[in-house]
Protein: 2,3-bisphosphoglycerate-dependent phosphoglycerate mutase
Amino acid sequence: MSLLVLVRHGQSVSNLQNVFTGSLDVALTPKGEEEAQETAAKLRGFHFDTAFCSDMLRARRTLDIMLRQLGQADIPTHYNAALNERYYGDLQGLNKAATVQQYGQEQVDQWRRSYDVAPPGGESLHQTQDRVVAYYEQAIVPPLRHGQHVLVVAHGNSLRALRMYLEHFSAEHVKGLEIPTGGARVYELDSALHIKEMRDL
Structure:
């Protein structure tokens, strides 16, 4: 049996400021560092063979805190931009509430939550999923097939895209999927990588 654990990074400076972050490379807040520690505490007793991570600062810092807290800082770690947050294009750096005032809630919800509609100049969730799933199949599936326990630290939308793929969510269902900062999803997989059990921590 293999184990896959997906973790969203802790609260970032942009999360706190309520702005569209996307590819902006921002740091964790003190609360975000605490969330990483709290998530690691929930994973105490888990042993990971390898870890995969976005190459963005907020995800890298979350992974570093978690592995140190777990006493597993020496495991192989792989950083790749394929796991980075969805690119929000022209919305990046804009305050979310102000954007709603300018464009309306319905339009902003469509940009943020829909599967196929991209924000102006940015990526749709579908496009994000294409790169995330390609990397998952190429890099993460092989150790899982060998029965390894794998930790993945990434972002709200890159993880929404991966969870949609893993759990066979419809485009309608994924609109309502919210992953909190520091949130962890655990999958127990059989030898064919079918999900035997899944749960949030």
